[in-house]
Amino acid sequence: MRLLPVLRKGERVLAAVSGGPDSVCLLRLLCALRDDGFIALEAAHFNHGIRGAEADGDQAFVEDLCRELGVRLALGYAPVPALAARNGRGIETQARESRRAFLLEALERGGGDVIATAHHAQDQAETVLMHLLRGAGLKGAGGMAAREGRFCRPLLEATKAQILACLEDMGQPYRLDATNGCPDNPRNALRLEVMPSLRRIYPGGEAALGRFARLAAQAGDYLEEQARAYLDRQARGTPWGGVLDLEAVHPAVLCQALALWTRAGDFDRIQALMALCGKDRGALAWGPLRFERTGTRLYRIDARLEPPGQSVPLGHGAGLTGLGHMEIAPWQGGPIGDDPWVQAADAAALAGAVLRTRRPGDRIHPLGGPGSRKLSDVLVDKGVDRPLRDYLPLVARGQTVLWAVGVCLAQQAAITEATANQVRLEWKKEEYTPWTTPR
Q1: What torsion, rounded to 10 degrees, do the Cα atoms 178, 180, 182, 185 define?
Q2: Which terminus of the chain, N or C, has less C-beta within 10 A?
Q3: Tell me: the pLDDT tens digits for 188-227?
Q4: Residue 298: which of 268, 266, 257 has the closest Cα?
Q5: Separation between Cα atoms, residue 335 and residue 267, nearest integer Å
Q6: How do residues 338-376 score in pLDDT, each as one tens digit?
Q7: Mean pLDDT, the chain, whole residue set
Q8: Residues 6 or more apart from 330 whose CB is under 8 A from it?
Q9: Can you tell me the distance from the alpha carbon of 82 to that of 211, in angstroms, rounded to the nearest whole number?
Q10: Is the pLDDT assigned to residue 294 strictly greater than 80?
Q11: What are phi and psi of 16, to 5 degrees?
């Protein structure tokens, strides 16, 4: 029987060995690679503190086997039942987390490169079925990867029958865990009650699930690549959370992009966002997060990220944290109308003005307009998306807005024949960061 080619020449491998047939077979096959000079090898055994004397027997067996094979062994222990009760977790969940933490610590302590576990084809079939029944997408349907992060699974395509036959050929004994025969958790119930029927009805079912997992993983990887490329083009971070410029794209790509962008794995939430993207306008909230669709944009607004509250005297320049800064210089060229981020204004009108964001009661008399209006009404009329309004930089004196940056200049600040001194104002907006999410 051959191992999957997931190990690299010269790697330092830590084999997770429970004493059961799968891990003992893995250890013996890895020893052959070690003896050929392909890898360096150590082993690790974790006692969960669940099965008393039986678990102690497993540990003694593994210690004797590693001594016989000349493999250095790291031992770990945790009172898993007590930890599970204290942490409010199921015993299986706590056991898995404690074992994983021990293996990673042992790998780090021993200077290893990768942890080898003995998951095989039946484990893969069970995992795929469990994920599908829980409502997984392509990523979950891909089951376990042969190599992922610090872990690898060289036996992932081997059947249980092949493993047992290999041990018999070697004359290698092993231990059996009695708790694996008790259907008291979902995986054991699936293994003991469902898989035998599946094998009887579909003799090649386990292998078919393994092939499906590989295809699903490949399709999932491709879909994620497309979704990340879409986000690289269309999404960016903002002071209030983020914004996604929607463009025509396959629904599967958009769905995956939304899952990455929001870091949400909940199917119902992602479907609700998909529905929101299909509308011209609308909103939905998840705790402190609010998602708002306006025109061609989807905004992610985090209520914990408030607009800058400071009022900064203009002077020769001023800035607002996270938004940008204003550059001010003398000017003699008259009105400027070709760049929304640049304005020429009457210097006297700006005396005592500050740079800030909007506040209740703000008003503006738009240049050329009939009179003073609520700033909020002007922003609506100018088509400023609602999520942007609280973060719009304003040049104001009291509650009178003299320039709503990028929107309109006030009549009071306009250059006229009576203007003695002019100034040029240029808003240098902060460059929003690209979208980011852990890979």
Answers
A1: 140
A2: C
A3: 888 889 999 998 999 999 999 999 999 999 999 999 999 9
A4: 257
A5: 53
A6: 889 999 999 999 999 999 999 999 999 999 999 999 999
A7: 91
A8: 347, 421, 422, 423, 424
A9: 39
A10: yes
A11: -80, 115
CA distance 342 to 332: 14
DSSP assignment letter at 185: S
- Give the chain's length: 439
CA distance 40 to 91: 33
In the block, residue with structure tokens 């000349």: 70
Q: How far apart are the first and last CA of the chain?
A: 34
**Across 272-278, average pLDDT:** 93
Query: What is the per-residue pLDDT for 84?
Result: 86
CA–CA dist 56, 78 (Å, integer): 13
Give, as one character, the DSSP assignment of residue 349: G
CA 370 – CA 61 distance, rounded (Å): 92
E-assigned strand segments in 252-399? 281-286, 289-294, 297-302, 312-313, 317-320, 324-331, 342-346, 354-356, 363-364, 373-374, 394-397
